[in-house]
Amino acid sequence: MNGEDVRMRGFRTRASLADAQAAAWGDVVLPHLLLPADEVGLSAACGRLLAEAVASDVDVPAFRRSAMDGYAVRAEDTFGASLYDTVRLAISGESMPGAETLPRVGAKQCARIMTGAPLPEGADAVLPAEHAKEDGGAVLAEESVTPGKNVGQVGEDVRRGDSLLAAGRRLRPQDVGLLASIGRGSVRVARRPRVRIVATGDELLAPGERPRGHRIVDSNTPMLRALAERDGAAIESELRLRDDEAAIRAALAAPGADVILTSGATSVGREDRIPLLVAELGSLLVHGVTMRPASPAGVGRIGAARVFLLPGNPVSCLAAYDLLAGPAIRVLAGSSPALPYAARDLPLACRIVSQIGRTDYVRVTIADGKVSPLATSGASILSSTTRADGFVIVPEGSEGVAEGSVVRVHLFHDDVRSALP
Once rounded to an integer, what is the mean pLDDT over residues 169-174? Predict the structure, then answer.
């Protein structure tokens, strides 16, 4: 797309949502190789995307250890022992977890031992405490054990040279524990995609200020920050700019971001300069999408950065993020582009009207297990998204959905899911 000036004239054509999504993230492969790697401590590694394959250079455990509280014995000394015909073994000492010195177990001897403690020299099994009784300085064994019984062997958990975790794996809590067990204090992970948020408009006040006169508070920036961080991004910067072309150009051209989210100045008004600036600085791949709300959304590139032109109206901004920018950020972060909301299939209480050739993002409420579209449809009514229980996507090939039809509802919060039948 050549960045045609559509200001005060309107769109001649719009891209389908599928084409816009392909432009947004269709070329991303192996995100753990696409972004540079960070070295992070294990305390910060959970949830990150592993940028290296991990193999062990140690055995875990590195010593034979007891799997039970009881007595370390030579198995052959317990043969024939029973509750009615006990075998007497002299106690030569004890082994505790972390012990530096160990007793030796000779013929007809044993040593007290705790779970996880190293097996003393001479012993080859552990007699559980519940099958033995102490009698002075000796133990009466009430059952026999076989060699290796109740003993964890060297490398039983992990052997030296084992491949443990593949590059590209999303680290889970147990993965972090495994890394710690082999002595790793840090690990290389794919850097989180760095997101720059650029909100424009002479009318904008900073979050925390009170609306006054003809000015409004910038609600999109905190919403976009929360969404991007949810999807695995790190916020590189937040910029709130007046409608100043030089300042907006500088914000778009500055290096350091993997993704740039713009809010406002994307439509066909006189001050809507961002599409032309993206085309000037890089390439404007899509401007105008056959979706409602958010039809003025766009997708572009400036250098290596992916640029998402999100409308200034808050509901349109949310819809364009959910369907275009969010999936791209998740893919860059190594996740699925799928919507990150719980979903339920529920019947419609009343019809949803749509139009062939347009994808609709319909805010809905749920009552008595049935779905109704919100009466408020304005793209500037942000409170409608807080009153909504979720949204329904009506695909471009549909004229709407009839009352009673089952639709997939993407739930905005888990409280709805727990209240559903």
Answer: 95
